[in-house]
């Protein structure tokens, strides 16, 4: 009997993210709900790519992504919420701006020939996403253990939670950028560098135009003063 081929395994950080209340939003305005999915998927591709990760697959209004770095996975989760909401606001949709929720775990995975990933850790990440409140990133003890000494992150213990298919409850934590992390600029901006460069250039041009306008006005005032002065 030929030996069954085994998939290579490796350690990776993974998260599931999706749009909170998407079904309710879709029932109100299906066209705009589909536009939300498009904005969400675009934001995922941008954010995950900038943090050296890979979008494994989209599941409608949800996404599964993997990262070789746990730190990068957490930063990407923070940036995704910010970028998604910014882009939705820019489109001025009639539906309320939705929030995302994310479940994140680090563990051993295997990659199939189709690029999909497998492993017990996927179940944990998926269940944590279901438990997360709007705008919340929930992580496991394994994630906290790797990053708890980093000043950029603050971990809030939420106690033990029962997870389907798990024999015992597991400790769950909410992770947020710490005050020192925000002050240090450790949490990256949501928008790509190219966008920031264009925005900065537009701002500089606006300043230059304003300075030129004031300079012109000043020259007119000075000329008027000289005309009015007695000779």
Describe the structure.
- There is one protein chain.
- With 231 residues, the protein is an alpha+beta fold.
- Helix content is 48%, strand content 26%.
- The chain is built from seven helices and eight strands; from the N terminus they run E-H-H-E-E-H-E-E-H-E-H-E-E-H-H.
- It has helices at 22-28, 30-50, 70-91, 120-131, 141-147, 179-183, 193-228; strands spanning 9-19, 53-59, 62-67, 100-111, 117-118, 137-140, 153-161, 170-177.
- The termini are far apart.
End-to-end distance: 113 Å
Instruction: Tell me, briefly, the overall form.
Output: globular
What gyration radius follows from the Cα positions, in whole Å?
24 Å
The low-confidence runs, each spanning 5 or more residues with pLDDT under 50, are 189-229
Whole-number average pLDDT? 80
